[in-house]
Design goal:
80 residues; mainly alpha; elongated
């Protein structure tokens, strides 16, 4: 009985995060299932689009504001 391939499996496969055995199972499923091929194609296209965006760190002042807010919130919460 073959394993059902999930969207999570396809995403892991696209990012080369699957084992050799998983690779074989996923590739076999892709070879035999047109709907799965379409889903994988969409994942790969999305992956390519995401790689076009410049990855930047958040603004330091934004991080400071969030951290300050979190600190004030923790001070307000009761402790056990």
């Amino acid at each position: 009985m073959s394993k059902i391939i999930t969207q999570n499996d396809l995403i892991r496969y696209a990012y080369n995060e699957t084992s050799f055995d998983e690779d074989c199972s996923i590739q076999q499923a892709l070879d035999n299932n047109w709907d799965l091929q379409e889903e994988y194609k969409t994942i790969v296209q999305t992956q390519a689009l995401l790689s076009l965006f410049k990855q930047t760190s958040p603004n330091k002042s934004s991080v400071r504001i969030i951290m300050d807010y979190n600190k004030r919130l923790e001070e307000l919460l009761p402790t056990c």
